[in-house]
Amino acid sequence: MTMHALVRLVVLAAAAAVGAGCGVAGDAPDPADGARSGETLGFVISMWRDEIPDVAPEHCPDGLNLNEREYFNIPRGAVREARERLGSLQAAEDEVFPPDACRDPLAQPDPGYLTFDADVPVAGLDLDGVASTRARGGQCAHDDFTSPDGRTGIDNQHWRLVGCTRGYQPDGLIQRGADSGSFIKEGIPILMEVTGVDDVRNDDDVRVRFASSADIITLDAASGVVPWTSMDLYEDPAYVSEQTAGRITDGILTIEPVDVRLRYRQQVIDFEYYFRGLQVRAEVLPDGGLKGMIGAYWDIDNMFRLRNDHRTRNRHTGRGASDALGFMCAGMYHALPRLADGHPDPETGACTSISTAYHFEAAPAFVIDPGVAAAND
Q1: Is residue 33 over pLDDT 80?
Q2: I need a labelling partner for 319 at 20 to 30 A (CA). Which of 43, 67, 311, 352 fits?
């Protein structure tokens, strides 16, 4: 099937699904149904992972960050003994450890934090159109990366933050989690919608929005995301972004920056992403999917809370998460403003967001707006 024919098929089926408020999982559109121009393509994210470059121990010459247990030299078994005596894991941790900086980031002084300062190829996007250097100065000055394919000006200060932590090393906890597909299998689906598409190879005026979904991902027997399923937009409009302008050039979709909030659910964490100035560079694939990079400025307060400020019913779990990933909450909290490179506060001049990058893939889907579908019933 040609790419042009595929777009024509998706357009007609998506329009029919919106009108009827339904769709059939796994059923691709019928090639004989014809087409209309300027229609809508829907996608559901099927792979999402942090950019973790190919690094080695020498790239962190002072070693990796310590977690609290290592930094304060707390004996193994101390928490277990206290739990047996007190009858509560939370009480045991509160007794054995110093005040919890994951709950209150000012509860401890800055213990210091090892950042990733090596010059290695790092994938991502040039979010600000400037090849920044710290030596050149300026507001929130920082050193950009060069991508593996030679593009300069790559903004990914998040990697400088996490690049010398145990959990973000190649084959570390974050990479293994991404490889397991847990973000897709257990999380709240992320949708993309591209409207006004006349030509999937070259179209200089399309509109793109992101949204969380109220539905769950449908997986096949191999745990792959089933394409052509119907996915409702999230009921809370806060998790449906505004449309932003985009273009498709030689089969590559790019968009203008847009602020995006997305629901986030993994294990005990039930929170949200808050990305500012999110951009995309993605290839439109022959099977109707997308594959590429998302870059954005991640609000630093949101980033700290998502990583560290979460709890089960009777226990705050941020300390356990930071322990597993290999850093101290106090160290990360104090390092974030030093590394932040976006959205300066108009009064203080301090940057309030940090650039980051994700690899993603997306399967074709029917994105359903329940309000529109109900109006058409």
Answers
A1: no
A2: 352
